[in-house]
Specification:
This protein is α+β, with helices and mostly antiparallel strands and about 550 residues long. It folds into 2 domains: about 1-305 and about 310-335, no CATH class; about 345-560, no CATH class. The chain has helices spanning about 1-15, 60-65, 80-85, 95-110, 115-120, 125-135, 155-160, 165, 205-210, 225-230, 260-265, 275, 310-315, 320, 330-340, 410-415, 520-525, 530-545, and strands at about 195, 215, 230-235, 255, 280, 300, 345-350, 360-365, 380-390, 395-400, 425, 435-440, 455-460, 490, 490-500, 505-515, 550-560. The strands form 5 sheets. Strands 9, 10, 12, 13, 16 and 17 form a 6-stranded antiparallel sheet that branches. Strands 7, 8, 11, 14 and 15 form a 5-stranded mixed sheet that branches. Strands 1-2 form a two-stranded parallel ribbon. Strand 1, helix 9 and strand 2 form a beta-alpha-beta unit. It is globular, with a radius of gyration of 25 Å. The chain starts with a helix and ends with a strand.
Length: about 550
């Protein structure tokens, strides 16, 4: 071991191994060095080369030289690269729903192709978008654009949201402000070549020599404002002829506002996005070389866990077709199920007394730091309630899910021009409590076309603790009947059931809180368009067995 350590010291001095930590040695003056990517076997050109380099960015395989194959103090893998490869961030440009939706938007508003390509690639193909924009070149996704293997920015595009994108976002005063949102991430000057991280006292020379970046400590990489650059997104809206009606960024449609929702919650004072969505591990050496690095605790795993198990299932089942590099999504899927299970709880509460009806109530309690569901408005959470008599026969059911992803009784799943209202009290099986955001156009018609969406006609998504629905900004306000529902408040919602026509006796109630990342009505509207990207996604959607995921459930006995 002594000889090995001497070898490592020699290699460090030559700049041939990864940066260590806890070093007090001053780094030598930085030299301009052209990085030499590792040789990588590319199975399919559509996957892109993960060892690419551009003026500003470097592919994940270059980082993998030393930041792959990491383990925690139990021997469990916490590999940065392997964890990241099985995330939606890594597969942001492979996402078949994204491709299908972008194609649909282009079909429906072809005159705004430039706007659509720009807006939709800023956060899904950020490195390609940034480089092309800086070089004054065309921003295009399909045809000869970023997804074309012959496009000069293809390799950068296929990395999705990768290492050197997030770690080059500067600690700028625009972070957490509208100027720094909607994909307006401030990337440092290429002559600086700084990669910002959470660790102090790192030895910079190896990274400078191998990949021509200087690791630099900055606490902002642990703050929610960094995530806001893409997870607060506003989009322009048009009339049916494609004329833009939004006059300023402030008047644009709030497509997703996860950061603002978090900022209006009690969590903004105690927990950042990273603390919930990046699992922690102890005893981790942040680089595989040299061996004598001191392990770190509370290491942020790059699994970026969210709630979209459906899309992870799609990626896992269609790896070759989609050009997916990750071989195993099981760890990310399990973590996704766990985070959904921790997002909310459900419990029995007393119902409204009725001499002739079976009466009971359920309370939903939020445990997440933003609205549930948050992010893109294709998502919905709903209540599935089943009542059985003493013989085990179903006598009432609200919220039954069909194999195609539709929910029985939900208006939008039958007619995409309508939507299910918010309920305080449910009395029939065709009434279903659905927590969702429904878009409307400038004429107050329900729409699923993003460029037509001027506002929401319904937003009763479950609120986080500390969220005052009477004081928040218009971008994140409650809309519809939920605003007047006194039982719908910060952190919880009470829903009451009064079921008529049942004989006296005892009944077993099972109430489940369910989640869908793609609502049936949203999918049906998308499938009205014809294009390869859309028919490909429809085939994958139909085959998926993961269209719905349970968040929480409870079972109790009630009597009439």
């Amino acid at each position: 071991m002594k000889n090995n350590n001497l070898l490592y010291i020699g290699l460090m001095l030559l700049g041939l191994v990864a940066c260590g930590d806890n070093s007090t040695e001053e780094a030598a003056p930085k030299e301009e060095v052209t990085p030499s990517p590792l040789p990588v076997e590319i199975i399919n050109a559509s996957k892109g080369d993960p060892a690419f380099t551009t003026e500003h960015f470097s592919g994940s395989q270059n980082c993998a030289q030393c930041h792959d194959d990491l383990k925690d103090n139990t021997g469990k893998s916490v590999s940065i690269i392997q964890d990241w490869q099985a995330t939606l961030m890594a597969n942001a440009t492979r996402d078949p729903l994204w491709k299908a939706k972008v194609r649909s938007e282009l079909n429906r508003t072809p005159a705004l192709a430039t706007v659509i390509n720009d807006k939709c690639s800023k956060c899904h193909a950020p490195m390609a978008h940034f480089e092309a924009s800086k070089n004054g070149q065309a921003i295009e996704i399909f045809d000869t654009g970023f997804l074309d293997p012959s496009n000069v920015y293809h390799d950068a595009a296929m990395e999705g949201v990768s290492c050197t994108l997030c770690h080059q976002i500067e600690d700028s005063e625009i972070l957490g402000t509208p100027e720094g949102m909607s994909g307006n991430y401030p990337i440092n000057n290429p002559s600086d070549r700084k990669l910002y991280g959470p660790y102090e006292n790192v030895f910079t020379r190896p990274m400078e020599m191998n990949v021509n970046y200087t690791p630099t400590f900055s606490a902002h990489v642990k703050e929610s404002e960094l995530c806001a650059t893409c997870h607060n997104l506003k989009t322009p809206f048009t009339d049916e002829a494609g004329n833009i009606l939004s006059s300023t960024p402030e008047t644009e449609f709030p497509e997703q506002m996860s950061y603002s929702e978090w900022d209006a919650s009690a969590y903004s004072d105690v927990k950042s996005c990273q603390q919930c969505h990046m699992l922690r591990a102890n005893g981790v050496k942040i680089s595989t070389m040299p061996e004598w690095l001191e392990p770190r605790d509370k290491f942020a795993q790059h699994s970026f866990v969210g709630g979209n198990r459906f899309m992870l299932d799609i990626l896992s089942n269609n790896k070759e077709e989609l050009g997916v590099i990750a071989s195993d999504f099981s760890k990310t899927m399990a973590a996704t199920e766990n985070i959904l299970a921790s997002a909310a709880g459900i419990e029995q509460i007393d119902g409204v007394e009725s001499p002739s009806d079976l009466s009971f109530g359920v309370q939903i309690n939020s445990k997440t730091g933003h609205k549930l569901p948050s992010s893109y408005p294709s998502r919905r959470v709903f209540l599935h309630v089943v009542v059985k008599n003493s013989l085990g026969e179903i006598v009432f059911e609200s919220g039954k899910v069909n194999s195609d992803g539709s929910i029985e009784g939900v208006d939008s799943d039958i007619d995409q021009t309508s939507f299910e209202p918010h309920y305080d009290e449910i009395t029939s099986s065709d009434q279903v409590q659905v927590y969702e955001a429904i878009m409307q156009d400038y004429q107050s018609n329900v729409t699923y076309t993003l460029l037509r969406a001027s506002s929401y006609i319904k937003d009763n998504r479950i609120l986080p603790i500390g969220f005052d629905k009477t004081k928040v900004s218009d971008d994140i306000k409650v809309i519809g009947e939920a605003m007047a529902d006194n039982n719908f408040s910060a952190g919880s919602d009470d829903v009451f059931y009064k079921i008529p026509g049942l004989t006296a006796g005892t009944y077993t109630v099972t109430a489940e809180l369910m989640y869908q990342s793609l609502a049936f009505g949203f999918a049906e509207d998308l499938f009205k368009d014809t294009a390869k990207e859309i028919t490909d996604f429809k085939r994958m959607y139909t085959a998926s067995k993961a269209k719905v995921t349970k968040i929480a459930d409870t079972t109790f006995i009630v009597a009439r």
